[in-house]
């Protein structure tokens, strides 16, 4: 476990001047704060004690500190702060917000910025996977930006990160980034954790930031968009890809298809995207039609509540 300084206080205001809230979830919130001693700004993550076990917090803190040496993972300061109501993580400030903040609905972000994201996120995930860890919560909210053009981005939030081989249960609800093997879990069923879960989420994230909408809402066969995709994957040479994939070049369809494979063991490694960085990923499409707009109405960018 990583070494850290322990500090027990009553209120966060004893150490920091809280400037504003940066984000909030079911387990706590993140605030922009200024250290009273040094004057330095920081992102302070307040995790509710009534919803988080101490052991769970210490695991996140230790992992966050240990992984901080990678340039594409957010830095975490080696200090354990506890208040009356919260456990506290103190991290370097991402000055340009999150990847979610810059995605334009039904448009995405510029292709060159997508490729910069793909490169850096894949490096960060490969670093985790090389240490036999699975992130488990890859989404734009957990990709932090040091600039709005994505020249420097950092992976964050290791609250769900666990070692490869861990048994995990079903989540409270399904979100678009969840792989089919996780989405299909029933109560009292367990899945052996593997990096393939991150690979699937990475594919969905790339699709999202290229288009500004999700490929499906749930990776289960009752979702019509997902079912259409799976049917196409069975005979890709005989029928065209689903309509929402028509923005992509042939090479990009192949790249995403290699990540979004139904069988976990058949998904290519994260770093396979390197083979496609010098190839166009999008083509110009003049009009999608009113029926496509209707189909995508439920798939455009929205804030998805944390599934923890």
Structural overview:
By secondary structure, the protein is an alpha+beta fold. It has eight helices and twelve strands. The strands form four sheets. Strands 1-5-6-4-3-2 form a six-stranded mixed beta sheet, covered by helices on one side. The protein is globular and about 65 Å long.
Using only C-alpha atoms, the radius of gyration works out to: 20 Å
Shape: globular
| Amount of helix | 25-40%
Q: Total number of β-strand segments?
A: 12
Structural class: alpha+beta
**What is the count of DSSP helices, taking H or I runs of 4+ residues?**
8
Which strand order does the major sheet show?
1-5-6-4-3-2
Mean pLDDT: 90
Order of helices and strands: EEEEHEEHHEEEEEHEHHHH
Fraction in beta strands: 15-25%
Q: Could you describe the largest sheet, including whether it forms a barrel?
A: 6 strands, mixed
Q: How far apart lie the N and C ends?
A: 23 Å
Enumerate the spans where pLDDT stays under 50 for 5 or more consecutive residues.
Answer: 286-296, 302-308
